[in-house]
Amino acid sequence: MTEMKATTASKKIVELATFYIGDALCGMDILKIQEINKLMQMTKVPQAPEYVVGILNLRGQIVTIIDLGRKLGLGKTDISQDPRNIIVNSAGGHVGLLVRKISDVVSADMEKKESAPANMRGIQGDYFNGVYKTDTNLIGILNVDKVLSIED
Question: 125 is in which domain, residue-wise?
C-alpha cells in the first residue's frame, strides 16, 4: 500500500472585499457580506449615537446604517460622492456599513497577514484583525464584530 503525502499547501486564502473609509483602504471577508447597495432613503433615529445615520427598509427587513467613518473616528462620510452600504449580518440583525467607495476583491493569504499597528491612519487598531500587504497597497482587515459591538 502506498503512503499518501499531504502535498496541498496549508494556505488560508480569503477573498477580501475592499472599500475606502475616508482615504484608508480596508477590507473584510466577502463571506460576511450579504450585499452591497447604493445609499437609499433613510429614516433618522432620534437619540441614536452620532455614527448611526438612520434605518432603512430593505425588502421588508429593517437595516441600521452605520457611518463607518464616524464610528472609526475618521469623520463623516461624504454622501455626495456616491457612497455604498455594505450590508452584513450581525447578532442584532442586518446592519449597513456606509463607506466612501467600493474597491476590488483581493485574494489574501492570511498566513501573510501582519498585526495591526496600534494606530492605523488615525483609526484605533483594535477595530482591525491585521493588515495585508499587496504589491501596491496596505489593506486594513476590518474586525466587523468589534465594529458592531455596542461597547466603544
Answer: 13-146
Mean pLDDT of all residues belonging to the chain: 84
Q: Global pTM?
A: 0.83
Q: Is residue 122 part of a domain?
A: yes
Question: Residue 107 maps to which CATH number?
Answer: 2.40.50.180
Bigger pLDDT: 109 vs 9 = 109
CA 133, CA 152: separation in Å to the nearest integer? 28
Does 7 reside within a domain?
no
The total number of structural domains that make up the chain:
1
Per cent of the chain over pLDDT 90 is 48
Q: Which residue has the cell 467613518?
A: 69
